[in-house]
């Protein structure tokens, strides 16, 4: 059995990431590559580190020209150890490359910060001085034409750029985000994208987040981040070039993509790209010029990014290539093709909304397609169906975000006019040097605040607020990806302009959205005018809502209500602002206090309910804190008492209920409620019958669900003695079950000693001849005791209400 190659360095067991990317199997094929130069554009390298010295070549210090590229931060030394710490030398760790040529290019300050100019200068120096691979474990949030040109220059010189995506859990940094740069994210121990690893359409693959590597001063240390993932990929690229020295950068990129371990199950995802770096597969799996095998049908479409360069091939003129991509927003995708010979390609695009459109693509110029947010499909096929030979191609996709609904508002005089109210809107920077102006026409004094937030680190938002004719205020306190805030400010009638822009230097369109949250609270005026004394009290009409506010500390609002007859008065105070406590106090006509109530903490409502005699009453409202940004609401419900009840006036059974109540046949509930439309239970019905018929004799009754401890036992015993009520065949009584209309009719018929009428047809459309109570209904209908509903039905299984039962009982008693 073959034993895998593995270094003997004393600290190699701390390098767990080597097992995660299957280095031992890869080392069976190749252990180093000292035929190419790998440039590390970073903070420099510890030039005297014993584990790095054997593999270092001459570099440059761009921060302190003329000085050696010595590392005074540690980051570059960390990166160098991952790539090329010498192996089997009885010292420290082993790099992925046991033998290498590492070129330190110091382009980053000792605090880890670096300028775009120095970064670009470092890349160009490396390219011009023989580097084949440039490792960039750093990045910027801002796109620039300058850096884009440097990246393009490297590609034309056959140099591969490998860059970290960044560690903010946000958008992929540049230069990793440029189409031809191999963008490397970080993988956590659970084989998912690390939560802090930047993600997006530009991610190519991931490598382990945590490493153990060289440190300045000849030391070793644990480090983490995408900065430590990128050099793992760069080193494996060097091993690939050792096996395939003829490859071009785009082929190396394709090789790493096609051999990555798919972690998403979808072939590609914004978090992990094509998957985990697999060094063993890079060196052992056969390379395919067309990594997207078996994608000649839509259901086999291969996932690609909306912002990368991919390569593939057409086997012949009848060989289609299907791809699919996820657009992060609505917008457009530009397709650029490199194909030799210069054949034309037929492109069919199916967008996320289901729309299908055909395009013609060639090396002569790009095609721009509108896309919807979500999944789109691309079908590419040679227009020359007769082509017989295999043709290789490179396809570059680039995404541009949609133009928001408020454009064209790039100038102050073109400001988009918003309604004068609180609102939240989303916008985009869809063109070069884009800025958006809005205008808020304030007509009423109030308070204004504005918050500007963004969903990507590629924006550094700037907020500007100005009242027409006055000096404006620019807010730019946060950095990239951070919100800006115009604090709560008093505003007065006039036009207020709000400008949203990016910090200086952010020129191209940006893939991302900003959110503008405007809070405007007009100072409200009490619609009832001054009513801070009893003599100026607002007269209330029952049932009408009255709005108001308390804008003075210690102030009060007075209302009055005239009661013409004994009534239950219910006062409801609602809409109390959060964290404010209001007190509602009631007084009689001589201003003698009657009652008061305060809304409990955390609630916005208070209620008072009392029985008032005829007269004038006053209500006083106070608050522990003044407020003028919203209204409270006060409403008085006045319910005159009829028969001692506040809820039967105007009811169809008003007179009957009043009569039954006066004769003490039936009781009501608390708060002067009769609840006429509430269903009546069998026990309640028995009690009403016993009282109404004045039954006195009773017999002992026993049911499975009823005994002497029930409140209605005396009434049930008397009703049973009179044979008005009985149990069910199973031995139960169900005293608390609601009575049906059929049972109501049967109970009242028994109270009148009716046995039912057999002859004739059913008097109601919904009662069959086979129904158990039909004979009773025939007799009650024939003798005029019941009439049913206007549609000819009786609705026997409906629940009988308290009003219905009392009405029928009173009719039989009279």
UniProtKB/TrEMBL annotation:
GO terms for biological process: proteolysis. Residues 640-698, 699-762, 764-814 form the SLH domain. Transmembrane segments: none annotated. GO terms for molecular function: serine-type endopeptidase activity. The active site is at residues 42, 75, 227. The keyword Calcium does not apply. InterPro entries: Peptidase_S8/S53_dom, Peptidase_S8/S53_dom_sf, Peptidase_S8/S53_subtilisin, Peptidase_S8_Asp-AS, Peptidase_S8_His-AS, Peptidase_S8_Ser-AS, Peptidase_S8_subtilisin-rel, SLH_dom. The keyword Hydrolase applies. Keywords: Hydrolase, Protease, Serine protease. Belongs to the peptidase S8 family. PANTHER family: CELL WALL-ASSOCIATED PROTEASE, SUBTILISIN-RELATED. This is Peptidase S8. It comes from Paenibacillus tyrfis.
């Amino acid at each position: 059995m073959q034993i895998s190659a593995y270094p003997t360095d004393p600290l190699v067991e701390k390098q767990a990431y080597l097992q995660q990317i299957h280095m031992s199997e890869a080392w069976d094929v190749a252990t180093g590559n000292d035929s190419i130069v790998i440039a590390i554009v970073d903070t420099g390298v510890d030039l005297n580190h014993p584990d790095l010295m054997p593999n270092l070549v001459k570099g440059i210090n761009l921060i302190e020209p003329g000085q050696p590229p010595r590392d005074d931060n540690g980051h570059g030394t960390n990166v160098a150890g991952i790539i090329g710490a010498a192996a089997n030398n009885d010292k420290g760790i082993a790099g992925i490359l046991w033998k290498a040529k590492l070129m330190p290019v110091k382009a980053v300050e000792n605090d880890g910060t670096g300028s775009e100019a120095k970064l670009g200068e470092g890349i160009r120096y490396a390219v011009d001085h023989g580097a084949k691979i440039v490792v960039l474990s750093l990045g910027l949030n801002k796109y620039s034409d300058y850096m884009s040109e440097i990246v393009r220059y490297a590609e034309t010189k056959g140099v591969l750029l490998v860059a970290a995506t960044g560690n903010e859990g946000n958008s992929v940094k540049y230069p990793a985000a440029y189409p031809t740069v191999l963008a490397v994210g970080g993988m956590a121990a659970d084989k998912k994208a690390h939560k802090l690893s930047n993600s997006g359409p530009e991610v190519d693959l991931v490598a382990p987040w945590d490493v153990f590597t060289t440190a300045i001063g000849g030391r070793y240390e644990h480090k983490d981040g995408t900065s430590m993932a990128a050099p793992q990929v760069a080193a494996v690229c060097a091993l690939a070039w050792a096996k395939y020295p003829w490859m071009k950068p785009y082929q190396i990129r394709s090789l790493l993509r096609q051999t990555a371990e798919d972690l998403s199950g979808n072939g590609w995802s914004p978090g992990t790209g094509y998957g985990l770096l697999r060094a063993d597969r890079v060196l052992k799996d056969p390379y395919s010029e067309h990594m997207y095998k078996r994608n000649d049908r839509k259901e086999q479409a291969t996932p690609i990014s909306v912002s990368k360069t991919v390569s593939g091939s057409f086997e012949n003129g009848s060989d289609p290539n299907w791809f699919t991509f996820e657009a992060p927003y609505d917008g457009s995708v530009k397709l650029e093709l490199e194909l030799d010979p210069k054949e034309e390609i037929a492109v069919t695009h199916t967008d996320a909304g289901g729309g299908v459109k055909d395009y013609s693509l060639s090396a002569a110029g790009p095609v721009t397609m509108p896309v919807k947010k979500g999944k789109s499909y691309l079908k590419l096929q040679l227009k020359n169906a007769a082509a017989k030979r295999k043709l290789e191609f490179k396809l570059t996709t680039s995404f541009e975000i949609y133009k928001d609904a408020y454009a064209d508002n790039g100038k102050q005089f073109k400001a988009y006019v918003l309604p004068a109210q609180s609102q939240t809107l989303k916008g985009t920077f869809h063109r070069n040097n884009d800025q958006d102006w809005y205008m808020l026409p304030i007509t009423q004094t109030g308070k204004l605040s504005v918050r500007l937030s963004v969903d990507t680190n590629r924006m550094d938002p700037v907020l500007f607020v100005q009242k027409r004719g006055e000096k404006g205020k620019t807010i730019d306190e946060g950095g990239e990806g951070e919100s800006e805030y115009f604090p709560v400010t008093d505003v007065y009638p006039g036009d207020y302009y709000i400008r949203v822009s990016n910090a200086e230097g952010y020129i191209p369109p940006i893939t991302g959205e900003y959110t503008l949250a405007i809070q405007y609270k007009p100072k409200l005026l009490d619609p009832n005018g001054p009513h801070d004394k009893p003599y100026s009290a607002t007269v209330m009409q029952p049932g009408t809502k009255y709005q108001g506010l308390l804008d003075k500390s210690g102030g009060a609002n007075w209302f009055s209500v005239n009661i013409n007859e004994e009534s239950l008065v219910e006062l409801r105070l609602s809409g109390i602002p959060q964290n404010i406590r209001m007190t509602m106090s009631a007084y009689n006509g001589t201003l003698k206090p009657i009652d008061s109530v305060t809304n409990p903490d955390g609630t916005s409502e208070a209620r008072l309910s009392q029985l008032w005699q005829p007269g004038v009453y006053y209500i006083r409202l106070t608050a522990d804190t003044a407020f003028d940004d919203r209204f409270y609401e006060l409403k008085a419900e006045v319910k005159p008492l009829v028969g001692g009840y506040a809820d039967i006036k105007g009811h169809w059974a008003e007179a009957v209920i009043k009569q039954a109540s006066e004769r003490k046949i039936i009781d009501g509930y608390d708060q002067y409620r009769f609840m006429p439309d509430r269903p009546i239970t069998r026990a309640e019905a028995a009690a009403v019958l016993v009282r109404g018929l004045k039954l006195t004799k009773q017999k002992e009754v026993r049911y499975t669900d009823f005994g002497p401890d029930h409140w209605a036992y005396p009434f049930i015993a008397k009703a049973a003695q009179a044979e008005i009520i009985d149990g069910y065949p199973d031995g139960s009584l169900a005293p608390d079950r609601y009575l049906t209309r059929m049972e109501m009719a049967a109970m009242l018929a028994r109270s009148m000693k009716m046995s039912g009428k057999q002859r004739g047809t059913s008097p109601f459309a919904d009662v069959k001849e086979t129904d158990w109570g039909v004979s009773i209904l025939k007799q009650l209908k024939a003798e005029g005791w019941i009439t049913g509903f206007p549609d000819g039905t009786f609705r026997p299984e409906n629940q009988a209400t308290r009003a219905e039962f009392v009405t029928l009982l009173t009719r039989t008693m009279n």
